């Protein structure tokens, strides 16, 4: 998959914004490997203050723990790039904000940092939705190829495409 260009990310962000506005939902973002690109894309849209509540860039493990409440044991057991940590990040973003919806992204953007089990381009994305009975979350792993910028752009596109609003 080629890295989405700015126009494609804008179209996705506009569509997500319309869905959030229609559903009267606030969103929070929790990002690691995307370094704030997801929040940037969402807030590039005029009127995004109607639905964008806040975002965190928690690049280090310490930031994930301090800012989002990710348990050190989860990072130690599963690694920062994992389903468990992505879900914990999404839940933390919802718990620490007024948002009912969250997207969390953690991964290996490269060009270094990959391992045989988690090569460059491994990205976990979690989506969370606060409901009356608690927070529902799910996560998907993506394996993408390309430069650091390409990995980050592909991760943002996948995050926006997978967002639930119901």
| Alpha-beta classification | alpha/beta
Low-confidence stretches: none
Tell me the number of structural domains. Answer: 1
- The overall pLDDT average reads 97
The helix-strand sequence is: HEHEHHHEEEH
How far do the termini sit from each other?
28 Å
**CATH architecture descriptor:** Alpha-Beta Complex
What is the tally of beta strands?
A: 5
Q: What portion of residues is helical?
A: 40-55%
Strand order of the largest sheet: 2-1-3-4-5
Cα-atom Rg, whole angstroms?
15 Å
**Number of helices in the DSSP assignment:** 6
Q: Major sheet, described briefly?
A: 5 strands, mixed
User: What is the CATH superfamily classification?
Assistant: CinA-like
3D structure, described in words:
- The chain has a single domain, classed as CinA-like (Maf protein, Alpha-Beta Complex).
- The longest helix has 18 residues, at 6-23.
- Helix 2 links the parallel strand 1 and strand 2.
- It has 166 residues and is α/β, with parallel strands linked by helices.
- Strands 2-1-3-4-5 form a five-stranded mixed beta sheet, with helices on both faces.
- The protein has helices at 6-23, 37-43, 61-68, 72-78, 83-95, 148-161; strands at 27-31, 52-57, 101-107, 122-131, 134-143.
- The chain contains six helices and five strands.
- It is globular.
- Helix 1 packs parallel to helix 6.
List its traits.
single chain, alpha/beta, Maf protein, 166 residues
Question: Short summary of the structure?
Answer:
This protein is α/β, with parallel strands linked by helices and 166 residues long.
């Amino acid at each position: 998959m080629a890295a989405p260009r700015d126009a494609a990310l804008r179209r996705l962000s506009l569509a997500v914004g319309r869905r959030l506005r229609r559903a009267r939902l606030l969103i929070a973002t929790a990002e690691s490997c995307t370094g704030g690109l997801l929040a940037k894309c969402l807030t590039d849209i005029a009127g995004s203050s109607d639905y964008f509540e806040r975002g965190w860039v928690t690049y280090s493990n310490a930031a994930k723990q301090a800012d989002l409440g990710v348990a050190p044991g989860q990072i130690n057991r599963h690694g920062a790039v994992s389903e468990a940590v992505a879900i914990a990040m999404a839940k933390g973003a919802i718990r620490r904000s007024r948002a009912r919806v969250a997207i969390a992204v953690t991964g290996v953007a490269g060009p270094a940092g990959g391992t045989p089990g988690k090569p460059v381009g491994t990205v976990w994305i979690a989506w969370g939705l606060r409901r009356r009975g608690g927070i529902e979350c799910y996560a998907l792993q993506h394996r993408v190829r390309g430069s650091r910028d390409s990995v980050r752009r592909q991760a943002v596109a996948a995050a926006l495409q997978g967002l639930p609003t119901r």
